[in-house]
Amino acid sequence: MQEWQFMTCVHTVSAFAMSWLGQALFYGTLLAAVTWAVLRPLRKHVSPAFEAAVWTIVLLKFLLPIGPALPFSMASGVGQLFNAIPTQYASTSNTGSVMPGVAGSAIAPGVSALETGTQVAHWRTILIAAYLGGVLVLLAVRVRGYRAMRACCRNLPDADQRTFNLVRRVCRQLGVRRLPLVKLSDELPAPFVMGLLNPILVLSHRQLVRPDELETVLVHEVTHLRRGDLIVRCFQWIAGTLLFFWPVVAWVNRRIDTAREYACDQWALRHGKLSAGEYARCLLEAVQPPRASCLAYHPACMAGRHSNIERRIDVILESKTGPRRARIWRLAAATLVFTWGAFVLSGAAQAENPKKQWAPTMQDVKQRNAEMLAFVGENDFVDADGDGEVTVPEKHVYLSALAIANADVVLAQFPMLDKNKDGELGVREAYALARGALIDGSDLKKIQFKAQKAYKAGDTQEADALKAQAAGVEAEYWHLVMDDQQWMLDNAEQAPDAKLFSVVNKKIQMIWKKEKSEHAKKIKSKTGEHDQKTDYIEQLKKKIAKLEADGHQEKADQLKKKLKKVEQE
Questions:
Q1: Three-class DSSP labels, 438-450
Q2: For residue 87, which phi and psi values (nearest 5 degrees)?
């Protein structure tokens, strides 16, 4: 029992991981394609900061494919598009998972007792385990590389007080409150900043020669802190690790890196002391000839990617370093980014009344029952009476035997069956589950009783309305019953053989005989009580008539009240 519960937990985790992967790849790739198609013709007309923000939203979609539900969202639109496509009827069981409405329709003849669902779960678990193993290995390599680089940066000599004061002044000018730890390096010509909680700014001795160049370089690197690029860098690192196999994620990360460096270049030209040509020369000198490993940690570096240096220099030389855009335009851009983020990152809203989407009918019940009978009838021994046709009682016997053969699985899903808490499943309990005794049908009985009462009162319009309502409730009731039956068929790990089916059939026949006998006794008892009541009423009527004939009207009225009360009862 404990082993099965452990495997169930493992299968649940693997199903969740597979669901997340599928949705992340689908929605993230779809959003990346849409974003590329929209931004490509507008690239020269939008700011790099806006472009970086939009691509960051795409990256977040890979990490959070489904967010809080909103009625107007990308997920809702995609869901409505898929709902508009005609699909085979699917039923939702009480476990919340969607199962095919045709019992075993995807299972080829000869496959025994629904082993396919278990095999799929096992293969899915193996694939997810292999995927998680790859993620853990890559994570260990990247964490080790990051820690090694951070330790190396911390061991570098501190900058002099004049350089530190300049860094403080630039931070105050750009509105950055947390000052980074400033280090100097002789080996790394390109300045960079790293570290999320305690940032480290690494400069080269070459930048200290020219104060104007140093200040411009500091503006570029401090802008990374002002924009929160290190936080985005962390999300890039997580997405690139979790979805290391998907090239679209690496492509989106390159888009973010490029747009981020463009935005910092604009700030450096606007607030620094170098001209566009001088800044382009400074950027070219900062390029490092050796290429780092693809698995190594890449900080937010002024040199950025070598493949983009030529393009960045062209943009710098062609750029116009005018004043910043008006506040109203920046506010409009921020509002647009926020609205777009809410639209694409939110989840699909559920319908207010799911029952309105699909109203079950008794015809659907009959069709579903026929399909289930056909599937169960693939086992020759199910036709117990040998008439060549599998009936509903024979289906109940098969489901009861199936439940007993998979008692641990059934009791884990329906613990209310084990009333004595002994961990065993008896034939009576299995038979109750197979017949749908766990589903509450009190609402249906109430509506049917009201309809009968309306017919007796002569209100045919109300009775017809109640009868139509009862038909819908009855269809829903039987679909719930079949959901439990379908769950047993889909989740059974082993099939009952002919011997177990025969034993269960005999015991169920005994249960039937006992129930019929008890029912007959109840009918007889009620009939006897009815006869006694009828005799008592006749005696009261005779006494009332005699008292009125003798002139004892007061006693006769008392007996009339008693007679009326008895008749009402």
A1: CCCCHHHHHHHHH
A2: -130, 165
- The average confidence (pLDDT) of the chain is 79
- pLDDT of residue 99 exceeding 80, the answer is no
- Euclidean distance between CA atoms 493 and 405, whole angstroms: 9
Q: How far apart are the first and last CA of the chain?
A: 53
Secondary structure element (H or E) that encloses residue 173, with its range: helix 161-174
Q: Is the dihedral of CA 129, 134, 139, 141 positive or negative?
A: positive
Neighbours of 341 (CB within 10 A): 17
Query: What residues pair up with 92 in beta bridges, in sequence order?
Result: 98
**pTM for this prediction:** 0.60
- Cβ atoms < 10 Å from Cβ of 499: 10
Residue positions counted in the chain: 569
Q: Give the C-alpha separation, 232 to 336, whole Å.
A: 19
Q: d(Cα 446, Cα 442) in Å, to the nearest integer? A: 6
- Rounded to an integer, what distance in angstroms lies between the CA atom of residue 81 and that of residue 530? 62
Residue 509 CB: number of other CB atoms within 10 A?
Answer: 13
Residue 233's CB: how many other CB atoms inside 10 A?
Answer: 22
* Average pLDDT value for residue range 506-526: 74
Residue 203 · residue 163 · CB < 8 Å: yes
* Contact indicator for 57, 341 with CB cutoff of 8 Å: yes
Angle, alpha carbons 366-369-374 (nearest 5°)? 125
**CA 496/CA 407 separation, integer angstroms:** 12
Per residue in 123-137, pLDDT (tens digit) is 888 899 999 999 999
